[in-house]
Amino acid sequence: MRTKFFIAGLMLFASTNMMADKYLTVTYSGTEQNILLPTVKKIYFQEDRVKVETTEGSHSYPYTVFEKISFTESPDAINALPEQAENLTFKDGTLAVKGDGFLRIYGTNGALVSIANVKEGANISLDNLPAGVYIVNMNGKTIKVRK
How many domains does the chain have? Predict the structure, then answer.
C-alpha cells in the first residue's frame, strides 16, 4: 500500500515539474530577457539582427550586443523582467529615460522608493539609493535595475 502512494506521489511530482513554465532566455548587453516559450513562433536572423517573433509581438537584438539564447524554467517575477527597455536603460549608475510620464521606482518588497514626473526625457542618477535590485516603471514599460 505504501509503495502505491509513493509511486502516485512521484508521478504527481513529475507531472507538476513537466507543466512548469519554460522560457526562451535571450542574453544581450549583459542583460537577460525571458520570453514564455509557448508564445515563441519563430527565431530568425535578418540583416544585422536576431529576431524572435511571438504571439504577442516581436523582439529584435542587434548582433553587436547579442550574446546567447538558452532555455530556462520558471524565473520568478523579478528575474523575468528585462533589464533594458526601449525608453528605459540603466548604465553606470544612471537611468536614461526617453519621453514623458511618471517614473516610479520600487524596491523588491514592492515599496515605492521614488517617483518623478519626467518631461522630454532625463538622465537620473540612482547614487542616492542603496545597493540592491529595483523595479522601474514608466508608460507601461518595466525594467529591473541592479545597483
Answer: 2
